[in-house]
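Q: Sequence in, structure out?
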Amino acid sequence: MSAGGRTGAARVRIGELARATGATARALRHYEQAGLIGSGRAANGYRVYEESAVTRVRNIRSLLEAGFTLEDVRPFLGCLDQEAFGPPSAGALRIARDRLAVLERRIAAQAETRDRLAAAIAGAETAAAAAGAVPAATGAARPPSG
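A: Exactly. Output:
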């Protein structure tokens, strides 16, 4: 990893941090804009991060992959630099439960939409089959005659 910037502190460039964490450079800039990570500038103007940002970014990505939003991640800032999280706090559990409830509502809404669409398709296929336009079992339209 690169060194630069402050004396004695290991620093990594954005590309190195991206490779080490599986994040894109764009995502890292987004995390920085959201206040979840910080950077400095090397003498050459390149954006550089403390080497400890590797752990923080991995933890941010884990929380995002679990369904949290960047705003949900903010209360976890105090523990994002640890390799392993300890027992969750009451606040962390509340955030997780709230996020789960949002996801469950979205899933239910999507399932309702799917069911309405499936019913509409079935009705349209039945009507088309009765008219001789579409075989009901396949749902495929007849090729145009020409």
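Residues 1 and 16 are 7 Å apart (CA to CA).
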